[in-house]
Write a structure and sequence with these properties.
- It comes from Streptomyces sparsogenes DSM 40356.
- It holds the Pfam family DUF1980_C.
- This is DUF1980 domain-containing protein.
- The protein is an alpha/beta fold.
- It has two domains: 102 residues, no CATH class; 132 residues, Beta Barrel (OB fold (Dihydrolipoamide Acetyltransferase, E2P)).
- Helices cover 32% and strands 17% of the residues.
- It has six helices and six strands, in the order αααααβαβββββ.
- Strands 2-3-4-6-5 form a five-stranded mixed beta barrel.
- Strand 1, helix 6 and strand 2 form a beta-alpha-beta unit.
- Helix 1 runs antiparallel to helix 2 and helix 1 runs parallel beside helix 4.
- It is elongated and about 75 Å long.
- The termini are far apart.
Length: 256
């Protein structure tokens, strides 16, 4: 039975990885897009290892034992409580993560993670902030911005390039305290385990349900002294529109 578990676990994990990488985009819930080739190679390797193990052991995997070996195993099991299985029955639980990836992929991280982690403050520019570091925004239209770009300008842009402009930010809803809420994104360097929080507080609009993806249109809401750590990104909303969940939820790039 132990060999059955090992071989089938390898096969299920391999098929699960190939399923989320080749047939769907579900892998983007867990890792960066650039890691797709590594996941495909890992899936192929796991299937190959499972196939080699199955071929080596034959079918069924548990070959009939000689009478002497069976008797010895029975005697040993009688004294040690393992029985005929050759391993603990709890080993079957190893199938759970493999089958979960294959049939019920967990969702991407969302408001639960964002609400329990402090938003990573935008880093101060290497030199004095100004128009050279923050180019002027287009006038007379709604400017699509990433949360990272908006947050950097809101905190460090003493030149005030956000003033007088209507911007649109896209992210998921994160509830705050006392009825406040944020439009948020989680950004990763490698995988979901290293996710960093980006969020902008929204004023003047009722919060949609938590984790709903929205496009928030509005104007900059100055908070704190710009150019210092006291400033924080915030927006006075004029419109909030529900949007579909993006294919790559961790990619904080402004839509064209």
């Amino acid at each position: 039975m132990k060999r059955n578990i090992q071989v089938l676990l390898l096969l299920f994990l391999g098929v699960g990885l190939l399923h989320i990488c080749l047939l769907t985009d579900l892998y983007l819930r867990y890792v960066r897009a650039g890691l797709r080739p590594v996941l495909i190679a890992s899936g192929v390797l796991l299937i190959a290892l499972g196939a080699v193990s199955a071929a080596r052991d034959g079918f069924p995997f548990d070959r009939p034992r000689p009478n002497g070996a069976h008797s010895h195993g029975h005697h040993h099991g009688h004294h040690h409580g393992h029985g005929h299985a050759g391993g603990p029955k709890v080993a079957w639980l190893l199938y759970v993560p493999a089958l979960t990836i294959l049939f019920l992929a967990p969702p991407a991280l969302g408001s639960y993670t964002a609400s329990r982690g402090d938003a990573e403050a935008p880093k101060a520019p290497a030199s004095a902030p100004g128009d050279t570091l923050f180019p002027a925004l287009p006038s007379g239209e709604v400017v699509e911005m990433s949360l990272n770009d908006f947050s950097s300008r809101a905190v460090w842009d003493t030149g005030g390039t956000l003033k007088g402009h209507t911007v649109r930010l896209t992210g998921f809803v994160t509830p705050g305290r006392h009825g406040t809420w944020y439009v948020s994104r989680l950004v990763i360097s490698c995988c979901a385990a290293d996710a960093r929080v980006r969020k902008v507080r929204v004023h003047g609009a009722t919060a949609p349900p938590a984790d709903a993806w929205v496009a928030v249109t509005g104007t900059w809401h100055p908070t704190g002294k710009v150019g210092t750590d006291d400033a924080s990104p915030a927006l006075d909303a004029t419109a909030v529109r529900r949007v579909p969940t993006p294919k790559d939820p961790y990619n904080d790039v402004a839509r064209p």
